[in-house]
Design a protein that fits this description.
2% of the residues lie in helices and 31% in strands. It has 222 residues and is mainly β. The chain has a four-stranded antiparallel β-sheet, with no helix packed on it. A four-stranded antiparallel β-sheet has the order 2-7-4-5, with no helix packed on it. Residues 1-13 have a biased composition (Basic and acidic residues). One of its GO terms (molecular function) is beta-galactosidase activity. Keywords: Glycosidase, Hydrolase.
Length: 222
């Protein structure tokens, strides 16, 4: 589910993700689910997304069925009437939006996504009981471009280059938020311009091949 901190030297061949889990609680009645299934990434050892590569996805349900990919057909999304992405208890939620861009020709525009949570300077939580004990993944047009763990590290800015971002069309943005607190967590996502320069390079180049979209075969990985 989360490969942060995985050893990339001598232990690079060790299993990734969760290697052990323990359910805590005095009795079985404390557990609020009827099924617990552990699943790896979609396709397992098959590289079903050769453009983005086999390390781009993990085993979250949203990743397996391709919610992060452009063109995902799901229509069951609930509207979020808040600027905060909230998970009210322990668990995982996915938040998605589609943002159109139309950057004028002749401009070099650098875009950075900023992820913040309680504890970051200037952040005002919608509920004082919400904490920052979360792990979030940022997907931009299907690419995993940010890992946000505010109670562990302090990185909040994640720049995304043209080609991954579609400067002349729609951009699918998905954030998965894994709450590790029974009292709930929350975070916010925004983006900012780092700079704007004049350029002779055409940043509106044909980059569709870099952003392959959702296909029907993703349905079998539920």
């Amino acid at each position: 589910m989360d490969q942060s901190g995985h050893e990339l030297r001598e232990s690079a061949i060790d299993p990734r993700g969760i290697t052990n889990a323990t359910l805590l609680g005095p009795t079985s009645s404390e557990y609020k689910f009827s099924e617990w299934r552990i699943a790896g990434n979609a396709g397992r050892e098959e590289n079903i997304d050769p453009v983005r590569g086999p390390m781009n996805e993990g085993g979250l349900y949203a990743e397996r069925v391709g919610m992060h990919l452009p063109g995902f057909p799901g229509k069951c999304w609930a509207d979020v009437n808040s600027s905060a992405l909230v998970v009210p208890s322990a668990g995982v939620r996915a938040f998605k939006t589609v943002v159109p861009l139309d950057v004028p020709s002749g401009l070099d525009v650098s875009v950075t996504f900023r992820l913040t949570s309680t504890g970051n300077e200037g952040y005002e939580p919608s509920d004082p009981g919400h904490s920052n004990r979360l792990r979030a993944l940022l997907f931009v047009n299907g690419y995993q471009y940010g890992r946000f763990s505010p109670y562990i590290g302090n990185q909040i800015d994640f720049p995304v280059p043209p080609g991954v971002l579609n400067y002349k069309g729609d951009n699918t943005i998905l954030v998965t938020v894994w709450s590790q607190s029974a009292q709930g967590v929350e975070m916010k996502i925004d983006w900012k311009l780092d700079y704007v320069h004049s350029t002779s390079f055409d940043f509106a180049f044909d980059s569709d091949y870099l952003r392959p979209g959702w296909t029907e075969d993703r349905r079998k990985y539920k």
